[in-house]
Write a structure and sequence with these properties.
homodimer, 516 residues, alpha/beta, Aspartate Aminotransferase, domain 1, Aspartate Aminotransferase, domain 2, 2 domains, 7-stranded mixed beta sheet, 3-stranded antiparallel beta sheet, 18 helices, 14 strands, EC 2.6.1.2 (chains A, B)
Chain lengths: 516, 516
């Protein structure tokens, strides 16, 4: 810290030059002289320490290095590879997945309504665009929407949920958001409070998607990590929840439990029985449930099926159905749409105290509204073409193609990994990632330590430098002590993915040999 | 609080009904019986008190009531008006302003690139769309962008700033965001820390745009309000800054100073001299400067001109130019574009400590990226058609029409208000609002008190109920004690605005008579 405090901020030479040729009208009139350098008001030492504690591995140092390598390649620096493959993030379109035509037609019609006159656009897309524009202020996607989202879209989400679950859903319980991340942070903000041993504790899986750890660090809450059972395909274990909760109660006030299903980074799809057990546990222990269900359309394994927490909760009946407080999250970034860049998503709240719900409405109003273009794409996702409508066949074909390609790639990934001695990969039942376990030889651990790196970071950095493949070390998600993993998306096109997996396996084998 | 604690949460009857007809597989297996009602985990009494403290008047109770009234009108409930006019928020398109064609053409081309084949779209829009798509992952607006925004757009913003200020700008200092609000909150998050008398204090104007008070409440910082001088057209007064800072130092650690120019809600445009004085004050007192410059294109008054803090800072020369830390904010929601729904904006940081800047980059990465469609509109705003390009004439004509209509409406608004005895309105030099002062008779104050309302809230609610005009009470922005104001946008179409102003003035006169 002292070193940071002493370091002088880097002044932009351009700015200094501009200043030197400036009018200089006031340069002598300051009360203080322009003596020696002085520390900035805001420095590493004086800034908000909660922000310093935030870590987000998915876009962390390994990605920074990947971007540098890309630039070096463009500048002609010789490398042992010709392309950097960013398998670090679930970004389908960046990996070549084509947008679903219908979604973009609806969005383009709303963005540029003159296109409503174009015969080339199908009538069902036009009908949806007309309805959405009528729900926009001044019939423009450029007007603010209501803060919880456009009412017509909240209605469509409610109907989508009713079809999905066979359980009533109410538009007033649905809050659209700037992606699921935004919605998750809003709910955590409501929950998190307290100081010292009264601080709010939140149970989060290990491994987890690091949005949770980042948000909890920023909010000053206590993250209580419960281990998923790697030996049982990353299943959730209520005994482990109980252990972590008991331990947590000694140092904070545990108030909430986060579950990610299908799992990120694990690819696990939870059984109905496990979900029931989690709900009962939340009821008994008085925990608010956060169900991150953004991968609900990404289920590949035979015999696996997505069960929403809300459906299971309703079917459990009283006292659970009318008591357990639940927030369930969904997104347009995943599923078959993969429209990450539009930043659309929502939360449905169930059994939320009406006063808290009012506070949630107020909280989201400060940021005015979620991006309307993202809301529009969300509407097209939850209200897709129906049989008989002109876009139906094409839409279904595109959707099936995306999902079946993902299913094939999930299988391919686990197969190639499991063929490699030293790598063990659980079945990728759902979501978009593999999270294989890698054995690392003791000399690799020593080499990593010598560089002040986590062993899996050391491995992933070497992998990146030698092959151009960018994956995220398991330490960025959390893992059982002494085990090492990495997260890799299954999104690259199948032919590319196959080459990538083979390269990765070969590199691993070479790496192990080098450090044995 | 006790009343809230006792109140039973409202259970969705639909949900309960679903539960009653549920499979009931687990309804008997809970450890706890389904005895009497129990309080929710998350209630008004147990939720994060910082969120409870947040207030955001622009979308507060008066707007909730306006929405109810709209619904009642639709249901045929008789009212003394036929339409609710929401003059509470700077939402240009909702008030009938048409989108600028070029911006939407570029956006539509990026959303649906098949349109690049359409002869109907001009070549300059296509050229920009092609360049932006090439800068998107997988050439899709549906891919995540880099967290601080698409590099090509950061470059265009930097060039825009260089043209504006005649001072070098660096893309690495520009962070695109989900609207200016998002960027402002990110900067405040870096600054805010400390407990008790070590809490961070932030100087904020009174009246202010309530995003600041809301964000500071949520972050647990101390808001130090400095009064703008209403008698000098809401000018900023450095002596007042000094007074508030001195007072603030006794109870917190003041670290930052927010300035809104052109002013929201005041409509004031700061003079170059005042900006110089503020910069010197920030230098002397070691304050980080936040310059909210989202209305920089909205300057109407003769003799008034927008001077950016960055330009004035550079021109002041050392020691200011190379020392004072500044964050300047801009947005696509205001200016001539008015594209609020797309949620686009940015912050440029100047003289920021490089380590802090790295922390800022990390912080924004947790939320992945700003909406790409908003980034695209931003690019079209900062990189508009140039002379000789096919869209140039049309674009300039549309832009001029928007800005000159606003200038006329600014004039009309202050004129009609100032004709009404008891209302005094400073010149609307810029931005999109009038913030007139209203004298309220003592009996009106008593009537308000009897209803537990601020006097100006009482006035605005009565105005809404009787005329359908929705404006925001001055108490939502802050005002000198004993004075009363409201904020009204000047955005309605001129003919409608004239009627609205006359109705409002007539209502005020009647109101004063009623309570005299």
């Amino acid at each position: 810290m002292r070193a940071l405090r002493a370091r002088r901020p880097h002044r932009l030479p351009a700015m200094a030059a501009a200043a030197a040729t400036s009018l200089g009208s006031g340069s002598g009139s300051g009360v203080l002289g322009s003596g020696g350098p002085r520390p900035p008001v805001l420095s590493g030492a004086t800034m908000n320490p909660a922000v310093r504690r935030v870590e987000y591995a998915v876009r962390g140092p390994i990605v920074t290095r990947a971007l540098q390598l890309e630039q070096e390649l463009r500048q002609g620096v010789p490398k042992p590879f010709t392309e950097v493959i960013k398998a670090n993030i679930g970004d389908a379109h960046a990996m070549g997945q084509k947008p679903i035509t219908f979604l973009r037609q609806v969005a383009a019609l709303c963005v540029f309504p003159e296109l409503l006159q174009e015969a080339a656009f199908p009538e069902d897309a036009k009908a949806r665009a007309r309805r959405l524009l009528a729900a926009c202020g001044g019939h423009s996607a450029g007007a603010y929407s209501a803060s919880p989202g456009i009412e017509a879209i909240r209605q469509d989400v409610a109907q989508f949920l009713e079809r999905r679950d066979g359980v009533p859903a109410c538009p007033q319980n649905i809050f659209l958001a700037t992606g699921a991340s935004d919605a998750i942070v809003s709910i955590l903000k409501l929950l998190v409070c307290g100081e010292g041993s009264g601080r709010c504790g939140v149970l989060v899986p290990v491994p987890q998607y690091p949005l949770y750890s980042a948000a909890l660090a920023e909010l000053g809450a206590v993250q209580l990590g419960y281990l998923l059972a790697e030996e049982r395909a990353w299943a959730l274990d209520v005994a482990e929840l109980r252990r972590v909760l008991g331990e947590g109660r000694r140092r904070c006030q545990p108030r909430a439990l986060c579950v990610i299903n299908p799992g990120n980074p694990t690819g696990q799809v939870q059984s109905r029985e496990d979900i029931e057990a989690v709900i009962k546990f939340a009821y008994e222990e008085r925990l608010f449930l956060l169900a991150d269900e953004v991968y609900q359309d990404n289920v590949y394994a035979e015999g696996a099926a997505f069960h929403s927490f809300k459906k299971v909760l309703a079917q459990l009946g009283p006292p659970y159905a009318d008591t357990v407080e639940l927030a369930s999250f969904h997104s347009i970034s995943k599923g078959f749409a993969g429209e990450c860049g539009f930043r659309g998503g929502y939360v449905e709240v169930v059994n939320m105290d009406p006063e808290v719900q009012q506070q949630l409405a107020k909280l989201v109003s400060v940021r005015l509204c979620p991006p309307v273009a993202g809301q529009i794409i969300l509407d097209a996702v939850v209200n897709p073409p129906q049989p008989g409508e002109p876009s139906y066949e094409g839409f279904m074909a595109e959707k099936r193609a995306v999902l079946s390609a993902l299913a094939q790639k999930a299988k391919l990934t686990q197969e190639i990994f499991n063929r490699t001695p030293g790598i063990r990969c659980n079945p990728v039942q759902g979501a978009m990632y593999a999270f294989p376990r890698i054995e690392l030889p003791p000399r690799a651990l020593q080499a990593a330590q010598a560089q002040g790196q986590a062993p899996d970071m050391f491995f992933c950095m070497r992998l990146l430098e030698e092959t151009g493949i960018c994956v995220v070390p398991g330490s960025g998600f959390g893992q059982k002590e002494g085990t090492f993993h990495f997260r890799m998306t299954i999104l690259p096109p199948a032919d590319k993915l196959q080459v990538l997996l083979q390269k990765l396996s070969a590199f691993y084998t070479k790496f192990v040999k080098e450090f044995s």
